[in-house]
Amino acid sequence: MNNQTEEDFKVSDYLQTAEDVKNYLQAALDENDPAFFVDALGVVSKSKGMKQISEQTGLGYQSLYKSFGEGKHPRFETVYKVVQALGLNFKLVV
């Protein structure tokens, strides 16, 4: 029996591979809720290390934390750069 509570559960604990990250972010996109995707991207960024993401994107460490805080709406440029820093790309399909 698993005694893990909801408070103990951290999505980031399950993002071990690039494929895990891709699948998690794709599932977030599939929800058609921009705020949900931004939150998911923030979770992934924090799990990979915001300092590393900051260095790869050229964006300020503190501003990244603020951009992905609860209820925030980061600029598309920020989202795009973070997605690229994670080794992912956007792909539009019909």
Model description:
By secondary structure, the chain is mainly alpha-helical. It has a domain at 33-89: 434 Repressor (Amino-terminal Domain), CATH 1.10.260. Helix content is 56%, strand content 0%. The chain is built from 5 helices and no strands. It has helices at residues 18-30, 34-48, 50-57, 61-67, 76-85. Helix 1 packs antiparallel against helix 2 (34-48) and helix 3 crosses helix 5 (76-85). The model has no long low-confidence stretch (mean pLDDT 89).
What's this, in brief?
The protein has 94 residues and is an all-alpha fold. Helices cover 56% and strands 0% of the residues.
Please summarize the sheet with the most strands: none
Q: Which whole number gives the mean pLDDT?
A: 89
Strand content: under 5%
Helix content: 55-70%
GO molecular function, one term: DNA binding
Protein name: Putative addiction module antidote protein
Pfam family, one: dnstrm_HI1420
Organism: Thiosulfativibrio zosterae
